[in-house]
Specification:
The chain is α+β, with helices and mostly antiparallel strands and about 160 residues long. It is built from 2 helices and 11 strands, in the order E-E-E-E-E-H-E-E-E-E-E-E-H. A 6-stranded mixed sheet has the order 8-1-2-11-10-9, with no helix packed on it. Strand 6 and strand 7 form a beta hairpin. It is globular.
């Protein structure tokens, strides 16, 4: 049995392995950054760090996350860094074992961020591989933005 954070985005049930999750926090509007990736909502301060927020609905389905009382940010470990994923609603922490199925060759997909599926009697939950959510170009832009923001924060603290 493995534990997952299960959530909704764009009316789809999705999950992330709990080992990749740092915390779930209330949604807040981030500070806009210049020339962001199309699905970057901005950045917020999180535990003394600058945390970029990715609109997961926009990234996966090209539809903005619904910003209301249910909207949350899942803070995840991504490539040894923290990023926030804005999602429509958290459904809970759930354990699955036999229900998990890896993608097979019958399903034509080139998406590395698909880790597998959890098959339930009334739903199929898509399990995401957090480290593969961004392609190489997007990853480079985000890492460069993080470096720039960290440098700016250090400069401000030194003044």
């Amino acid at each position: 049995m493995k534990q997952y954070i299960v959530f909704k985005t764009n009316s789809q049930s999705l999950a992330i392995g709990i080992e990749k999750v740092d915390k779930i926090i209330e949604f807040e509007e981030g500070k806009k950054i210049p020339e962001p990736l199309p699905y970057m909502l901005g950045v917020i301060e999180y535990n003394g760090r600058v945390l970029p927020i990715v609109d997961l609905g926009k990234r996966l389905y090209n539809r903005d996350v619904i910003k209301d009382i249910d909207t949350k940010i899942i803070v995840v470990n991504w490539k040894e860094k923290l990023i926030g994923l804005a999602v429509d609603d958290i459904l809970g922490i759930k354990s699955y074992g036999e229900e998990f199925e890896e993608p097979n060759n019958d399903i034509e997909t080139s998406k590395e961020y698909l880790n597998g599926f959890i098959k339930l009697p009334d739903d199929i939950i898509i399990v995401l591989n957090v480290d593969e959510l961004l392609d190489k170009d997007q990853e480079e832009v985000l890492i460069e933005d993080l470096k720039m923001m960290a440098d700016e924060k250090i400069e401000k603290e030194e003044k």
